[in-house]
Design a protein that fits this description.
Nonspecific Lipid-transfer Protein, Chain A, Arc Repressor Mutant, subunit A, alpha+beta, five-stranded mixed β-sheet, 2 domains
């Protein structure tokens, strides 16, 4: 791990998380929670296996990531963020909000994973917290579905499916991303090809305010 050699909090922070892939490893652990090495590798398209191992060792040494042996039937090492690592959630979420406008133009070689937008969605609040909780399933062709739920006034996303979703939203990648990050309103999104099955009211409750 290289150091900037500066007595500055920003430089010191970058000494720990400024190397390539380090902050994306933090992103995966924030979204997925405790994860196997193979889960992290799957979520980090393009990372070499030896580089992932190196970055995990460095983040462990810095107190950002911890590891533990899971009992059978899992019987593998699980990586998770320490309390210190969890403090980076606001940093990663802020970077996500800052970078959201850059998603307006999709690059053909960019790898898309639906769960990566969980942190952007997580920044929202339930628009009707006094009503019963709702679950909205988000589907993009060829990708793992994501569920966005209301829990105690907050909007919480997770990878996977809902047993009884109040609404299912599907459509082209760019439109789904724009809708979930608040850059496109629901009426415009549906007029351009986003499809909603079920309650539009439930979907509206989990959408962020437009930016």
């Amino acid at each position: 791990m290289r150091s900037y050699g500066q007595y500055c909090p920003v430089a010191k922070a970058l000494d720990v998380i400024g190397d390539r892939w380090s902050l994306l490893i933090v992103r995966e652990l924030l979204i997925r929670g405790p994860s196997r090495y193979t889960d992290l590798r799957k979520g980090l398209d393009g990372i070499a296996t030896n580089l992932l191992a190196d970055r995990l060792r460095e983040l462990e040494a810095a107190g950002v990531v911890g590891s533990a042996e899971a009992p059978p039937p899992v019987a593998t090492t699980l990586y998770s963020l320490t309390e210190r690592g969890q403090e980076l959630e606001r940093v990663v979420a802020a970077l996500g909000r800052w970078g959201a406008p850059l998603l307006a133009a999709e690059l053909p070689d960019d790898a898309y994973r639906s769960h990566r937008f969980a942190l952007a969605v997580k920044a929202g609040k339930d628009r009707s917290p006094s009503q019963r909780p709702v679950a909205v399933e988000v589907r993009v062709d060829g990708e793992e579905p994501m569920v966005v739920e209301t829990v105690g006034g907050d909007v919480k996303p997770r990878a996977g499916t809902a047993e009884h979703p109040d609404a299912v939203v599907s459509g082209p990648t760019l439109l789904i991303v724009a809708l979930l990050t608040g850059r496109l309103d629901l009426a415009t999104a549906t007029s351009r090809g986003v499809h909603v099955d079920g309650s539009r009211e439930a979907l509206t409750r989990v959408l962020p305010a437009r930016s």
